[in-house]
User: What shape does this take?
Amino acid sequence: MKRTWLLLTTPLSLLLATGPKPGAQQATTPGGWQLTQKPDDSHENSPAQFSLAGKFIARPQKDPGTPPELELSCKRHRLGKRFTSAHLEVGALLKIAYVEPDEIKAGTSYYPKVDVQYRLDDGKEEKDQWMPGTEKTSVSIPRKTFEKMLQAHTVQIKLPDYTGREISVQFDVPDSSQVGATCDLPVRKK
Assistant: This one.
């Protein structure tokens, strides 16, 4: 009986040990933008996705096990590639503030926002509110802010986790000419 059990479980255990783990992320190499999804020329609107790994200055209370990442997506448009979205993924639950809009047309409506502070190079720290992602571990970066980030050498971002404790991340922005050309974005001159 013991031998039968071993014969049945050994192939399964080998398969689980060598196969990809559910939810595992693609490993990124340090040092630059990674093209994580190439556009497909046969599909007119296929997206191009880039990611840039950063580092934690002040880690989240519960370590996510992966570095923070800037993620960029752009789609083919009849006039070329166009910016679609940019996100900061920190891997920890963020503190969401519900903000009342300037004008309410019908009923009561509040928008979810995350309070963010960011600094480009040695510039002045700026404060803003960004939209959280649906999983509440990421924030959407406005296009104009992301364009400024691409022209900097260093980007530091601070945002609160769900308990209000500060998470601080830093990105060393490499040459972004491929990102700029693919997504039609201005980049830092060499």
